[in-house]
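Quick one, tokens below. Sequence please?
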């Protein structure tokens, strides 16, 4: 999924990810958020750690971040992929993992958003 600003929003002379001036390799991110309770958070971390090897073996997998706001219970997972095709090929497995979290932990599955990483510092 290309994430490109409309022409009017781009400063003059700015490279786009697909232009020859773009110096980085494209990386794609799958982003998913869910609402948990404090009691569910430890279970979610354990659930994720136990299933992470399957993701690590998937072609194009670059990493995973699991973020949490302990006060509100909001959790965000971000997985990074070499290409749009790589994460799409893993998506069926990802849907199974989200459904597993829903049934084992009582965390409602939510939609996944996809982004192209434009800058990593």
């Amino acid at each position: 999924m290309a994430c490109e600003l409309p022409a009017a929003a781009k400063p003059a002379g700015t490279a786009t990810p697909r232009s020859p001036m773009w110096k980085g390799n494209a990386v794609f991110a799958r982003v998913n958020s869910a609402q948990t309770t404090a009691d569910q958070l430890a279970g979610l971390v354990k659930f994720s750690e136990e299933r992470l090897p399957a993701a690590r073996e998937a072609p194009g997998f670059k990493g995973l971040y699991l973020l949490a706001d302990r006060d509100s219970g909001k959790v965000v997972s971000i997985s990074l992929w070499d290409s749009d095709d790589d994460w799409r090929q893993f998506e069926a497995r990802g849907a199974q993992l989200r459904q597993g979290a829903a049934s084992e932990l009582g965390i409602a599955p939510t939609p996944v958003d996809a982004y192209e990483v434009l800058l990593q510092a």
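Strands lie at 27-35, 61-69, 74-81, 112-117. The longest helix spans residues 84-105.
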